[in-house]
Known about the structure:
The chain is of the alpha/beta class. The protein has helices at 28-35, 38-50, 55-79, 92-112, 157-171, 201-236, and strands spanning 8-9, 17-18, 24-27, 115-125, 130-140, 143-150, 182-188, 194-199. It has a single domain, classed as 3-Layer(aba) Sandwich (Trna Endonuclease, Chain: A, domain 1), CATH 3.40.1350.
Amino acid sequence: MEPTLAVVRGGGRPDTYKNATGKRVVSITTVTGRYDNKESLIAWAAKEAREGRDYKLTRDLAASTGTAVHDAIERFVSFGAVADPDFSELGEEQQVQAMLAYRAFGRWFASEQPTITHAEMPIVNERLQVAGTIDAFGILRGKRTLLDWKTSNGIYAGHVVQVAAYGLLWEESHDKAEWPEQYAILRFGKDGTLHDRVWTPDEMRVARDAFEVWLAAYRLDAPLQKLLRQQRQAETGEE
């Protein structure tokens, strides 16, 4: 597979996102992570416990594997690669999983031959005071496409809401002629499976609406917790 040339690189994900005045703003993934897929996560954690595994360790290993694959994909679409990436920082089992996921990406890239124009683009939206980093933007199947890479066990509602929110950030920072004509989530499984999901802007409208509701609810959480703390202090006399 051949990489895209002359990709605009945004510099990747910062440790914290800040607005024009230097104030920290919340990330899209923080908001979507608060509300998405909780029942499935609880069920998965219970299953890990029944089978004698520490779910936190399993979660962290999966996250480190996903990050390694994501970084390898970003390097490929930005700079190209002449050989399989080095996953030696991972454990033996995670190395196998990472290579299977990366090769799934390779099959997809070779088949679809997308033109990637932008990679790892952090955007801060001053209107909503929220930020996120878009994995990639380019031309897929002849259409301007906002792309998101996943190595999770599935594609969940929160993933769709996340990508819709990225589209909102992209649109408010680019001319209309550059707006996405479609949105794609590409899931490269750690077992080598590949799932390709593509939606139109009209189809994503409900996901965008969901994000704005989730963001509003997220911002109500802090005053709600303050109200509860004040009540506890009044009952106990604590400062």
